[in-house]
Amino acid sequence: MRFVGIGCLFVFLLAGGTALAQPCPLALRPAEDNFGYRHRSAPDRCEGLYSAPVAGEGLELLSFVVGRSAFDRNNDRNLIITAPDVHALGAREVAVIGRALPLRVYYRMDVILPSAGPMQWPVSEVVLPAGLEPANIGLVGRVTTGDESIYVPLRVSAPKPDPSPAAAQPMIIFRAPFDLESFQWRLYEPGGTVQTWNKYGPAVRAGDPIALTLATPGGKVMTLDVAARPVGSAFIQSRLKIFSP
User: Fold this and answer.
1) CA angle at residue 111 from 133 to 109, to 5 degrees?
2) pLDDT in tens, the chain (245 residues)
3) Please, what sign has the CA dihedral across residues 17, 150, 188, 171?
4) What are the phi and psi torsion angles at 88 (to 5°)?
5) Which DSSP symbol is given to 11?
6) Whether the Cβ atoms of residue 61 and residue 151 lie closer than 8 Å to each other
7) Phi-psi region of 74 (alpha: psi -120 to 50; beta: other; left: phi over 0)
8) Residue 181 falls in which region: left (phi positive, over 0), alpha (psi -120 to 50) or beta
9) C-alpha span between 162 and 148 (Å, rounded)
10) How far is residue 223's CA from residue 150's CA, in Å, rounded to a whole number?
């Protein structure tokens, strides 16, 4: 079966708190209200709601994070997003995209973080006033080396971090807009032995988050294959490269 890459991540701007002179992606149609997708400052980023896309959606990668502290909606106004150190990949920055996990909720954030750099994400500016839950926003980090995209796990934490956080493995979340008969995945080192498929246990209905906890070895680029079989159809397969410092 032929493998295809999971969609492009259109990116925007932030490097150590300094805006980069790049426009927001033009492919999106911002919603016509104060929460419409547009450039926002402090920190510089593109964020907001947009109109439903015309094209249909397939299997999507929506989140790749390590940990997620409990969020106090009554008191917290920010979350901290921290990029991993990607200098080992020959990169200096991480492109970040945030999207809503539920189907037909058209929220998006685009920002660029420096390697190992943090960002205060002001969820009180768009996410909370628009009636969204931070826990329902997926975050994905990506670096580009040559013509290759490599996905890296972001760390998400509350403004007051847990003084004794438990060790956590990266969790990656996919979503399909249709019911699935089967979802399978395998993780292996490029050029090494291709592993047998792991089967995802729970039944998957359209829009369900498909969450995988990945025991990724540190400091190695790994290949992640996923295969989703829509009801009554053939498998759709995708191949990604992922890296955990």
Assistant:
1) 35
2) 444 444 433 333 233 343 343 568 778 889 988 899 999 988 999 999 999 875 656 899 999 999 766 677 777 889 999 999 999 999 999 999 999 999 999 999 999 999 999 999 999 999 999 999 999 999 999 999 888 999 999 999 887 766 555 567 899 999 999 999 999 999 999 888 888 999 998 889 999 999 999 888 889 999 999 999 999 999 999 999 999 98
3) positive
4) -65, -20
5) -
6) yes
7) alpha
8) alpha
9) 35
10) 10
Tokens linked to 187: 């993780």
Q: How many angstroms separate the CA atoms of 107 and 99, rounded?
A: 6
Amino acid, single-letter form, for residue 126: V
User: Which tokens sit at 86?
Assistant: 């990607």
In contact, 133 and 142? CB cutoff 8 Å: no
What's the chain's length in residues?
A: 245
CA distances from 238 to 55, 138, 158, 224, 226 (A): 19, 19, 33, 8, 5
